[in-house]
Amino acid sequence: MPLGHGVRYAARSDGATCTTNAAVSSVPRATRPSTLPTAAKAAALAARIGLNAVISRDRPGFIIEALAYAQYNDAVRMFQDGYASPADIDTAMMLGCGYPRGPLQMLDEIGAANVVSVLDAMHAATGQPEFTPVPLLAEYATAGTRFRTSAEG
Asked: Is the pTM of this model over 0.90?
């Protein structure tokens, strides 16, 4: 349901959330409806309390989740297709992109079942193919299997 649905002054309504998960630190997000002034006020409030806010239009999944969860899915696809091991995928992303942890390590921290649930919801809402969980991810989620073992780090 769109932000402000059924509200008399929907253009003045705003959504503000603070995202915290195992993969990222807290990131306040102001969701703008049809105009920017209210979202700008929410971002200014975040700045006053020492936070950096991002502003996006209202859609399923936050900016971070829309990018990160598609990337988790791609990392599993690479492993599923035999392109590289989970350790090598994570190492490549840590060394090549400066990530503190690789995508499969982050996926394990969040949990495969949680990742599949988010991907399913985002796919249902957007129809975008990058949010369709790859078969191996769904299999690991059902079995409760991790992509990285404690021996791998």
From this structure: no
